[in-house]
Amino acid sequence: MNKSVESESLEALGGNMAKSGSNEDKSAAERIDKLIAELGDWRAETLSRMRTLIKETDPEVVEEVKWVKATSPGTPTWSHDGIICTGEAYKSVVKLTFAKGASLKDPAKLFNSSLEGNTRRAIDIREGEKVDATKFKALIRSAIALNTSGAKKPARKK
């Protein structure tokens, strides 16, 4: 029986993180470095590559770790005048969720998950898959352009 990615239990990024040592005294970049390093497998390589592409596309991007809880080390988040995307590592995929993905044109058809909603879209990357760097960077640029335009999300259909 196949489970959807959303129903898979998340292998917490940094699930092996020691309880000692506060995250509050580290920069977001250092925390993301640590979260990626603790994955230690293909997901680390994939998330690291996508992070590099985001930073190459927008050197001014703001990296944050959001939604930190006692049970979760948080989610790497990249923003420029609003959230561009988040990066999460699940058991079988690395998921990049674009906050306003439903409002973005995706001629390269990179979005392959969360296609039903009115707001978000996601790219699920499985082991061995590679996302085309040029097409991904174009999508990042589109997300930044949407954020900086001040455009509101589309009104809900009644």
List keywords for this structure.
158 residues; alpha+beta; 5-stranded antiparallel β-sheet; 3 helices; 28% helix; disordered N terminus
What's the helix and strand layout?
Layout: H1 28-39, H2 42-57, E1 62-66, E2 75-79, E3 83-89, E4 93-98, E5 121-126, H3 133-149
Antiparallel strand pairs: 1-2, 2-3, 3-4, 4-5
Number of helices: 3
Tell me the fraction of residues in β-strands, as a range.
Answer: 15-25%
Shape: globular
- For the secondary structure, the number of strands is 5
Biggest β-sheet: strands ordered side by side in the sheet? 1-2-3-4-5
Distance between the termini: 36 Å
What percentage of residues falls in helices of 4 or more residues? 25-40%
Radius of gyration: 16 Å
| Average pLDDT rating | 83
Q: Pairing-aware structural class of the strands and helices?
A: alpha+beta
List the uncertain runs: 1-23
Helix/strand order, N-terminal first: HHEEEEEH
The main pleated sheet reads as: 5 strands, antiparallel
How does this model look, in words?
With 158 residues, this protein is of the alpha+beta class. The protein is 28% helix and 18% strand. It contains 3 helices and 5 strands; from the N terminus they run ααβββββα. The protein has helices spanning 28-39, 42-57, 133-149, and strands at residues 62-66, 75-79, 83-89, 93-98, 121-126. A 5-stranded antiparallel sheet has the order 1-2-3-4-5. α1 (28-39) packs antiparallel against α2 (42-57) and α2 (42-57) crosses α3. The relative contact order is 0.16.
